[in-house]
From TrEMBL:
PROSITE patterns: PPR. This is Pentacotripeptide-repeat region of PRORP domain-containing protein. The lineage of its organism: Eukaryota, Viridiplantae, Streptophyta, Embryophyta, Tracheophyta. Keywords: Repeat. Gene3D superfamilies: Tetratricopeptide repeat domain. InterPro entries: Mito_RNA-Proc/Resp, PPR_rpt, TPR-like_helical_dom_sf. PPR repeats lie at residues 95-129, 130-164, 165-199, 200-234, 235-269, 270-304, 305-339, 340-374, 375-409, 410-444, 445-479. GO terms for molecular function: mRNA binding. Transmembrane segments: none annotated.
């Protein structure tokens, strides 16, 4: 019999035949069905039964509703979650947790206005928003670059007597750093301590990361000492951050010592740890040591990622070891890893640096055959190679092709093209590109200005050279060898 093999069929039959006459029994059956589907990570059937339960005039437990709401959002079913939340408003006693879950879902989707309206709706019900709601909305604003809105919410919550906790402060600090307000972030950290709110591990990691990005390793290690003194144990992310800080300043020996300290603390290096160290050695041109770290990574059970091989290929290329780069590329493919547009661009750059534009373009064609689209950086690498060889017609064709594909030239590309035209003595083309660059809101570098002025002088176009020099003076651009050379030519 069907019911003997599938109890859900019997339950569904009971629901269809007796939804009204036995409300307590039917409500229990609905709950069992919904809970079973939630435990099985099946949000859609669970939502279907909860909707049917509501239509039968039955009220699900708020815990069941919240669990389902959370599952729907975790499954990227925001539309279904929103619909269910809307239908449940007048039928289920929604609590602060319900609103908090929905606000989080809307923030994750970037729908900040709806999230803000929902929080105001909760507040209109007579209860002030919780610290979790405020923190969630503040985090959403920070992640979308709305620092001013985040600050207003932060001040508003304090004005309502809702005390920010360590998560609120950390979100605000992280948002300040992410949006370029470093000083404001550290001021918030000081405020946090004055308010008696203890920084957590994530707070310290965010602060140390910013110090390392600013190349302030002294402050980073002061924070490291502070956290350990307060009993906050560093994790793998903490050590990765500091190791990365050392590597960015070419202090790879110190980074290696920190790796030993990390292991002594009982922490196992992650894939990121090894990638950061490999990158450090590659930056320093120490490819033998970079390869040793790669072997250590494998021996310790980590499989190198595409990022690992991209870093190695780039390191070998910059060291002029194209054989090493080719071997790393081959090993990458042998391991079943698919080269990305970054991989191809690195290889294109390697061949271009060796003046082997034929192989550079062959790699570009391989990239296109793989279904990968070249970005502005890829085009820039190819154009630089052509400019260095004086192949300005081909460089211009690529420049136009890039524009046709909707890719905007970067300031690096403009400066390179101007350099190429100046080298071949094409003052008209160099000046035209310089004006186009300025018109697009970019600032030419000193070399572009200086070389263009010099080539204009050589072509006898002194008036245009003087106009350009005047722009340089008024722009506040610092003097350079190129600018000084241009001034000498104009005397």
């Amino acid at each position: 019999m069907p019911s003997a093999h599938n109890p859900f069929l019997l339950i569904q039959k009971i629901i269809k035949t007796q939804p009204i006459h036995h409300p307590a029994t039917t409500s229990l059956i609905f709950r069992l069905l919904i809970d079973a589907h939630i435990r099985s990570q099946k949000p859609c059937p669970a939502a279907l039964y909860l909707d049917r339960m509501l239509r039968c005039g039955l009220t699900p437990p708020i815990t069941t509703f919240n669990r389902l709401l959370h599952l729907l959002l975790a499954s990227d079913l925001l539309h279904t979650a929103s619909s269910l939340f809307r239908d449940a408003k007048n039928r289920v006693p929604l609590n602060a947790y319900s609103f908090g879950i929905m606000i989080r879902g809307l923030c994750d989707a970037g729908r900040l206005d709806e999230a803000s309206n929902l929080m105001e709706e909760f507040e209109a019900g007579g209860s002030p928003p919780s610290v979790v709601m405020y923190t969630t909305l503040i985090d959403g604003c920070c992640r979308r670059g709305s620092s001013d809105a985040a600050r207003r919410l932060f001040d508003r919550m304090k004005g309502q007597g809702v005390a920010p906790n360590e998560f609120t402060y950390t979100v605000m600090i992280s948002g300040c750093f992410r949006n370029g307000f470093s000083n404001a972030g550290f001021e918030l950290y000081d405020e946090m301590k004055r308010a008696g709110v203890f920084p957590n591990l994530y707070t310290y990691n965010v602060l140390m990361s910013q110090c390392c990005k600013s190349q302030d390793l002294v402050s980073a290690f002061q924070l490291f000492d502070e956290m350990t003194e307060k009993g906050v144990l560093p994790n793998v992310v903490t050590y990765n951050t500091l190791i990365g800080g050392f590597c960015r300043q070419s202090m790879v020996k110190d980074a290696t010592k920190l790796l030993v300290r990390m292991k002594d603390a009982g922490l196992r290096p992650s894939l990121v740890t090894y990638n950061v160290l490999i990158d450090g050695y590659c930056r320093a041109g120490k490819m033998v040591k970079a390869s040793r770290v790669l072997n250590q990574m494998k021996q310790n059970g980590h499989s190198p990622s595409t990022i690992t091989y991209n870093v190695l290929i780039d390191g070998f290329s910059r060291a002029g070891d194209l054989v090493g780069a080719a071997n790393a590329y081959r090993e990458m493919k042998d391991r079943g890893l698919t080269p990305t547009n970054v991989t191809y661009t690195i290889l294109i750059d390697a061949f271009a640096r060796e003046d082997d534009m034929e192989r550079a373009f062959e790699m570009h064609r391989s990239m296109e055959r793989a279904g990968l689209a070249a970005d502005a950086h890829t085009y820039g690498v190819l154009m630089r190679g052509l400019c260095m060889q004086g192949e300005m017609k081909d460089a211009r064709k690529l420049f136009d092709a890039m524009n046709d594909k909707g890719l905007e030239p970067t300031d690096v590309i403009y400066n390179m093209m101007i350099y190429g035209y100046c080298r071949e003595g094409s003052s008209y083309r160099a000046l035209r590109l310089l004006r186009e660059m300025i018109g697009n809101g970019m600032v030419p570098n000193a070399a572009s200005y200086g070389l263009t002025i010099r080539v204009l002088c050589k072509d006898g176009k002194r008036q245009e050279a003087e106009v350009l020099l005047s722009k340089v003076i008024h722009s506040g651009l610092q003097s350079s060898e190129s600018i000084n050379g241009a001034l000498f030519d104009m005397q």
